[in-house]
Each structure stands twice: as structure tokens, then as C-alpha cells.
Amino acid sequence: xxxxxxxxxxxxxVKELCxxxxxxxxxxxxxxxxxxxxxKSNGDNALLSYAQQFDNIELxxxxxxxEELTELTRQIPSExxxxxxxxxxxxxxFHSAQLxxxxxxxxxxxxxxxRENRGIESVGLYIPGGTAVLPSTFLMLGxxxxxxxxxxxxxxxxxxxxxKVNCYIAYVATLLNIEKVYLVGGAQAVAAMAYGTExxxxxxxxxxxxxxxxxxxxKQVQNSVxxxxxxxxxxxxxxxxxxxxxxxxxADLLAQAEHGTDxxxxxxxxxxxxxxxxxxxxxxxxxxxxxxxxxxxxxENSYIMLVDDLEQGMEFxxxxxxxxxxxxxxxxxxxxxxxxxxxxxxxxxxxxxxxxDYASGTNHTLPTSAFAKAYSGVSVDTFIKKIxxxxxxxxxxxxxxxxxxxxxQAEGLQAHKNAVTIRLKGLGVRx
Length: 431
Hints:
The chain is α/β, with parallel strands linked by helices. It has 17 helices and 15 strands.
């Protein structure tokens, strides 16, 4: 990992270091556009063709139904089933607390305003299944969708080599009472959910992380369908001081690195000594990882930032705006007020990112690529619309009427003014 010193860098150099741009971005854009147009034009035939091209499988059906999903769940080991059940309960408990009815507000006498929640009727969930199958992502998206009251939940995940889905994905589907999983991956899955095909229903909003093609596809379909956020390759920033435990820090950096070769694992640290010890630990732990080649490539794409103190480290972190921020320090409480840009935060030496990735209850579908400066992670709110209501009785109209008439007149919108005046006349307030 290359080492930089924050105090030796200009603001522009820091900005460039925090950029996640990759040299072949334009190629990804053009290829994604081709895939989207093909799916729009050719529907299921395009999806079946891409299954052969990208997944090396000839599908007889583009989905797995409820009976076959139930059959697949019988393959799940009991300890994994128990772990999924525990994660389900924790995630459900955390997210169910987010669904709250707001109070009605009387903005002036007898003028009452309020908001009510409505679940988005049709949502699409993309569950990655490339180099790693992610039932945890299914839980993170499906549970808040259910809590929000979404009526139709369309699930797409790449087919496995046997033309089915992993038994873990199948089990989560049964927990969520989802009757179909569509065997579609990549940018073509996003296109199918955005525009609909003969088999895959069109949805109103698309959720879920994925590779660069999935991310680019979500960006390109935004004129037709809403998306949760423009998330890309996963990333972590660990802020550490002399109270950090190097082996723990190294484990956290590698946990992020094994997601994919384009992941980033950044260490901001106040101590040269700790930095050196972390590097040694990375080399030691890396050798034993089954996905060591992937993790090693991601580590090569990452770096260490030396900072004078934790406050300077937070200054750097807020520019980077990490998806995951780990405060590997005993002084984490004093840093909480300084956090401005981050997707999800893990406090102290005993709180690994893995806890949030799987089972603590918080959502792991988070903004990457510095989008944490403007986006939040997925929550129940992401799956609902908030509709505003207002009610005026005769007294309320009399109280607010003149204000509306004056403002409408000032803007030159006479019909707006008349809509109030005619009612006031009906109440005998205007001649």
C-alpha cells in the first residue's frame, strides 16, 4: 500500500486521491448502453442471450417459482439457517422502528397539515451473485420493502452454474414470502426491471448494489425509473490511532478488499508505527484467504494516509466520504460530532464492519464513490413515499385567505387568487 502524508498534500491532490474514477469508464458506459437498448428492444430473448454470454448457461426459464425455491431451501445447512434467522430478526427489529406516523400540525388556527406514508407499489431488488453470493443483501433490501408495505417485490439475481439460485437466496425468498426469483444479472437485470420484458415486470424503483455495469445501468435508466442510490464498488476507511489493534485493522481492511478487485480499503492513521504493523498483519492474514488474489489486487488499489491527529483524520474522511467508516480508537465518542460524510459508522476496536454487513440490524446497502456526501443508506424511508395532506375549515380559510390572495396577486397568477376569493365570497367574507 502506498503511503501519503496529509500535511504534504494540496487540496487538489487530496481530491484526486479521493476520486474513484477508473480509466475505462467510457467503455463501461457504452457497453451498458448497448445492453439496455438490446433489452428494451428484444426483451426475454436478450436476457436469455446474455445468460449464455455472461453466465455460460442456457436457461429454459427466466425465473424460479415458489415450489422450486422451497425445494432448494432443503439444501441449507442448519447452522446457516439459524444465522440467517438471527440476522433477519435483528434487521427487522432495527428497521421496523423507522416506520413512524407523523403528527398533524396546525400551522395556524384551523389550518391543519400532515404527511402519511405509502409504500412504493412496485420495487425491484438486485441481488448480486457473481464472485460471491449475497443472501445478506437480500435481507437488507427485502425486509425494509416488506415493512414499508410494497405490494410487488421483483427480485433479480444471476443464475448459478446449475441454472438455479443458491439455497441461501432461496431460503431468504421464503422468509420474505417472495414467490419468484428472476434469473437475470448485471446491467441486463436493471434494464429488465426498468422497462419490463415479457417475463420480468416493470417496477417503479430499483434497489441494490452491483458491479460497475450494474451501477452504470442504474444511472442510465433514471429517466424512466427511480433508483436507491448510484452505488458502486465497495469501500472502507479505517481511522486509527495508537490505541488501535493492528491485527484488527488489517482484518477490517482485508474484509473490504475481498469484495472485488475494484474495492478500496483506506487507512488513515496517526502513527507510523501502527501503519507499519498493519502492513505486516495484512501480509500475514492475506496468505490464508481463499480470495487472496482478489483481496491483494484491491489492496494494491488502496493506500495509507498519515495524519497528525484524529481530527485531521476526520477532515480527510469527510472529503473521502466513505461507504464504511471504522473508528479504530478508544476515543471514538469525541469524533462522532465531527462525522459529516459517511454511509455507516463502526465505533471502537470491537465493532467490525462485518457486524453491520450481516447481522447487527443496520443496513449494508450504502452510498459509495463519495455519494455519502448527499445520500443515505437504504432504510424503510427508501421504500416509501410521504404524501402531504392539508385541511381548511371555514375558520382556517378565513385566517389564511388574505395571505394566499396577496401572494398570488404578487406573482401575477389571478386564477390562484380567484380559487380563494370565490370561496371567501361563498362564506360571505368577500363581496
